[in-house]
Amino acid sequence: DESPGEFRVRDLSLAESGRRQIRLAEHEMPGLMALRRELAPSQPLAGARIAGSIHMTVQTAVLIETLTALGAEVRWASCNIFSTQDEAAAAVVVGPEGTPEQPRGAPVFAWKGETLEEYWECADQVFTWPGAGPNMILDDGGDATLLVHQGVEAERAGTVGPGTSPGEPGHSAEGEVLRETLRRSLAADPQRWTGIARGIRGVTEETTTGVRRLDQLAEAGSLLFPAIDVNSSVTKSKFDNRYGIRHSLLDGLNRATDVLIGGKVALVAGYGDVGKGAAEALRGQGARVVVSEIDPICALQAVMDGHQVARVEDVVGEADFFITTTGDRDVITADHMAAMKDKAVVGNIGHFDDEIDMAGLAAWPGVTRVEVKPQVHEWTFPDGHSVLVLSEGRLLNLGNATGHPSFVMSTSFTNQVIAQVDLFTRADAYDVGVHRLPKALDERVARLHLDALGVRLTELTKVQAEYLGLDVAGPYKPDHYRY
Ligand code: NAI
Predict the structure, then answer these.
(1) Ligand 1 centroid vs 271 CA: distance in angstroms?
(2) Among 261, 281, 420, 459, which residue carries the largest CB count within 10 Å?
(3) 347 lines ligand 1 (CB under 6 A)
(4) Gap between the Cα atoms of 318 and 323, Å rounded
(5) What are the structural domain ranges in the chain?
């Protein structure tokens, strides 16, 4: 390793603690470590320059060091202002061989508690390479991809427009900060993003919300390069989104408020993969869970799983916890919060902060806000009742805790690394559109995680395989199977 050059993290002296946590995480991330052993000798990512934007946690540190072990260079930012673990960021910059005085790792631009301005500056930094620009993006939620697309749009128009392209951050204040970043960039170099976009072979996207934005770009015909939807790998969305949340939602709630969950009423908005994990976790603690849904299939699933299904309005004065998992906007409104029980806890685990109407809350006549501790705020209404809002409406499992545990992130990130390698080494095989990894690779990711949990998998006999019309080695399900 060489010097990381420029970087921006909280405090490099945290690196030693970060390194110890990374070592523990490596033990819990068998898929990533298997890819290191298997692929490092052939260096499939040699020449890859990856602009990375994903929560800068301990688990992401293991991802970054897997990508660099395979030959990649990276520049990294977090995809959320509150989700960085400062010790992990420091450890990545210092690197396994470096010291805080002589860092030898990878450049990271991330710290816990960025302002929105700093957030978009960091996003800009991961595209600011010395010499040749980046040729790959690894994204979570689509902000890095959005920056390139809106940059190119602005350069084509010669001006930064109102931000009408699909995937605009729902949060209007955030859109304005992004536009200001683009205005400065346009003034400094009117061809910058066009040049960057030309060099990008593709993006691999981590989460449901980012994939929705990619699909919108593709539908509008404005997607600029191929994309792999990592979220739709079964070993991503059916594990991270569900079992990851089942763990990290409680972690966030407990660290934030330490309010007893048992015996209480918890409203979970959305019963997709994340909502199912959230409802299971809350019920596991003894809460009575009420689900709200717009999709009749998911509503039917929720009721069959034994949850009451109602509208937010129906239980607004009754619930003790309100957890949004929809990836939608305006799910909890200021009117809802005004009608809640005293000290109700309001938190979001969907990707963006527009699920809870924070702007409407702040504008409520006579409302006051007190910081109980960082990322926990008590908002008191003129009638005297208050609500506790976690992480200012941003994803609470990463803002109030440290996100998902390593093992489940290993399944997600093994898909990420496989997607990066495939897109980088076989770029010609991907047209400009949104692609998924083949099921054989999905099954392989699962296989890499069985031994660590003591699983003895049954093997098909040749006769059984013929009877079922399968290959002994898989894939075992058709693509449309839903698990
Ligand atoms: P999903 O699409 O499986 O589930 C979302 C559900 O919300 C859908 O069933 C939809 O019908 C429902 N919904 C939409 N609008 C609604 C409304 N107004 N009221 C009630 N229900 C509504 O998506 P998934 O995978 O569960 O992800 C949800 C969000 O969580 C996304 O933003 C995703 O990016 C994010 N995510 C966050 C993670 C974290 O660690 N915090 C991890 C994984 C995903």
Answers:
(1) 7
(2) 420
(3) no
(4) 14
(5) 12-237+404-440, 245-399
